[in-house]
Structure formats: C-alpha cells, structure tokens
Amino acid sequence: MSIHGLILEVRVTGCRKLRDTEFFTRQDPYVVVEYATTKLRTRTCTDGGRNPTFDEKFHIPLIEGLRELNVIVWNSNTLTHDDFIGSGRVYLHKVLTNGYDDSSWPLQTRHMRSAGEVKLIMHVDVSAMKNKMGRSVAASSAHPVPALSMPAPSPTPAPAPSPASAATPAPAPALASAIPYTGVSPSYPPVSAYPGATAYPAYPTSSHAPYTTAEYPPPPQQPYQPPPAGYPPSYPPQPYEQSYPPQPYEGSYPPQPYERSYPPQPYGQQPYPPPPAAESPYPPAPYPGTYPPRPY
C-alpha cells in the first residue's frame, strides 16, 4: 500500500548510555532527526550527561519509497564546534504495519563502535492509510480501463455510374464560348520559333521563274552563254568548265583552218596581187605557192 502523504508522529523521549565526550564536565547532548530533506532538532539537554531526557514530538510527512529515517546525537559546545556522539538508522516497517512502535535504536560512532541508544515512540494513523487505499481502489473501479480501440471501418466506395449516364457526355460550360477573348494585341510582332524566309533568293535564279522564298534543293544553273562574235574574250578568263564549246588554247575566235589562208587560194595560183616576174630579185620558186612557203 502507498504511504505517500501520511503523517508520521515521532516522539523523542531520551537517550541511554551515551558515549561521553567530556572529561571534566557533564556534556550537553541534543538529537537531530533526518528524513529525506527534512531535518528536525530537539532542544539541548544541559548537563544531561550520558542519559539525557528530551520528550519532544515531531510530525513528518512520509514519501513513497522512503521507509527509514536517521537519528544523530551531538554534544553542544559554547566555544568550539559540537562533538559528534553517535548516529543510528530507524526502520519504519513495524510502525507502518501496526501503526505504533516504541522501540530503542542503537547508536554507533564513525568507527562502528557502540555509542549508546535512543528511545523513540512512533505512531501512524493506520485507518487513514486504509481509507486512502480504499479510495484509490474505488477510483480505479469507477474508471475502467478502456478497451482497445478498433480501427474505423473503411468507407463504402461509391457505386459505379450506369452505362447510360457514362455514355452521356457532360455539357460543356457555356460561359467559355459565350464570352469572346478580349486580350490586348501585343505592341510587337510575335516572335517565331524559327527564322522567317528572307525577301531575297538564296541562289541566283533565272528570269523566267522568279521566286521570293528559298527552295531546297536550288534549281539547276543555266549553261554559260558564250559572248557574241566580234568581241574579244572577257578578262579574267572564265573557268575551263564554264565555257562551251571548249576554246583552243591562245587561239582566236572563230578558229582558223589548219595551215590554210583565208580565203583559200587554189593550188598553183600566186598571191593577190602577184608580183611582177621581172621585178622579183629572187629566182622563181621551184613550185608555185606563196613566199615564203608555209611549213607542212
């Protein structure tokens, strides 16, 4: 049973056969009772000697778990520190069981030698302790231990919609179609994700089929047209593969016949006009022809 809050009545009647700490005079003993942090002191028994008498009563509230108290006996001195006579431990088992205890408890020195004994009369109201225990039992019965809480049942799932209601589409909100969008037009042209087509063609095009946007792949180029006759060749000369038909190397246009004069002379004729035969300083040629003769 619990003893917390009960009041222990302790009456210190006196001591017997105490150790004498004085050699020429009688000692003046007193008793200190300690319980937990509580310290209670009796009056000093002047010239009490070895058998002092106190007859003092104290009331000490008990604490659960602490069922013993300490008793210390001192000799009071006027000019010097008090002398330690002896101490003892008092157990509360008997008084808590029977409600009353008038035993004498032995005292010992610091060297575990006998220092006399102290007489205590202790009393506890057992009826109050029983009533307290009965109230605690009644309170525990009035408040039964709650049963283990069961988990809440899971909510019943909603029934699936019927096929007819599932097939019927929900009407669209009319507010979105009735109210037109009134956004403010931007002050700048919209930015395109890709660059726009340029106004100029990326490749040269013919005059017959102009276009404004670049196409891929580009149209084939027209073959190079030679300049009209009568004009000298252009400078710098065009690449070899750009002229058609191919021109002879370092030749004139149009090409002349090989080793032929223009206009061609009939075989055996003299050049025009022929030189007079008498005025020629050279002998006549062995074969008719031009002078000097052209190499074959």
UniProtKB/TrEMBL annotation:
<feature type="domain" description="C2">
    <location>
        <begin position="1"/>
        <end position="106"/>
    </location>
</feature>
<dbReference type="InterPro" id="IPR052981">
    <property type="entry name" value="Ingression_C2_domain"/>
</dbReference>
<dbReference type="Pfam" id="PF00168">
    <property type="entry name" value="C2"/>
</dbReference>
<feature type="region of interest" description="Disordered">
    <location>
        <begin position="211"/>
        <end position="296"/>
    </location>
</feature>
<feature type="compositionally biased region" description="Pro residues">
    <location>
        <begin position="216"/>
        <end position="239"/>
    </location>
</feature>
<dbReference type="InterPro" id="IPR035892">
    <property type="entry name" value="C2_domain_sf"/>
</dbReference>
<feature type="compositionally biased region" description="Pro residues">
    <location>
        <begin position="152"/>
        <end position="162"/>
    </location>
</feature>
<protein>
    <submittedName>
        <fullName>Calcium-binding protein</fullName>
    </submittedName>
</protein>
<dbReference type="InterPro" id="IPR000008">
    <property type="entry name" value="C2_dom"/>
</dbReference>
<feature type="region of interest" description="Disordered">
    <location>
        <begin position="135"/>
        <end position="171"/>
    </location>
</feature>
<feature type="compositionally biased region" description="Low complexity">
    <location>
        <begin position="136"/>
        <end position="151"/>
    </location>
</feature>
<feature type="compositionally biased region" description="Pro residues">
    <location>
        <begin position="263"/>
        <end position="296"/>
    </location>
</feature>
